[in-house]
Amino acid sequence: MAWYPAATKWELQPESDSQPAIRPTQFIVHSIIAPWTAKRVFEYWRDSTNLESHFGLGYEGDLGQFIGTQTRADANYNANRRPDGTGAVSCETASNTKGTDPWTDEQIEQLIRLGVWLHQMHDIPLRICRTGADPGFGYHRLHADWSPSGTACPGDARVKQFKEQVFPGIVARANGATPTQEDDMDPIDVLRYRNAKQDAAQVKKDGKHIPDVYGYITGISRDVAALRTEVAALTKAVAALVKKG
After folding, report:
1. 183 has a pLDDT exceeding 90
2. Which of 6-20, 25-39, 207-221, 225-239 has the lowest mean pLDDT?
3. Which is it for the CA torsion 117, 123, 128, 129, positive or negative?
4. Mind giving me the DSSP string for 118-187?
5. Parallel, antiparallel, or unpaired: how do β-strands 63-65 and 55-57 relate?
6. 109-134 tens-digit pLDDT
7. In terms of DSSP bridges, do strands 86-93 and 23-31 run parallel, antiparallel, or are they unpaired?
């Protein structure tokens, strides 16, 4: 299984272990028709249905991964897993309840970064899918056999953004253009970017995954941030007691 190092890992079970393997050849983006965070998307898949996507993306750019990208997820109908073992990686994105709003800047940036990683990790070609089985990038309503009864997902505003911002951004970034230069990134983002490139290079070299260094360091970073918040709250409480006494 492949896990994107820049996403929070909330693993769905038993699906993660029980569903068949795929060879990812497509990336398909969706709107979930709810203004949910990535964590709320995970909770919905876990508690309310036996369906799921690989990723969930909130308005603020919070990105969660629920199943490894080399395991089948159920968001794309015939593209979930084909007889030859190929399949699509799916990402549900927060939207309004009518699916008419555009993606936020934060969502667009995350979709671009994720798309670049999928291209590097799985060699998904840098083109929009020409048919339902054609390798590449797409959005859910692009091809009829990606949905059992047709779909308007995502809405017109997001289709326009996909064609004009998201997909061109993936292509430009994958080909070496860096709209977000490392000099402008925070240290965690630099590590995330470099680790993804190193992981992809190692996989192409010998087919093996390198350890998830980013995930380890990010976990430590989150723990430290939580401790700092707790210490600040305790310091404030102690100061209030001293002032009161």
Report:
1. no
2. 207-221
3. negative
4. HHHHH---SSB-SSTTSSEEEEGGGSGGGSTT----S-HHHHHHIIIIIHHHHHHHHTT--SS-GGGS-H
5. antiparallel
6. 999 999 999 999 999 999 999 999 99
7. parallel
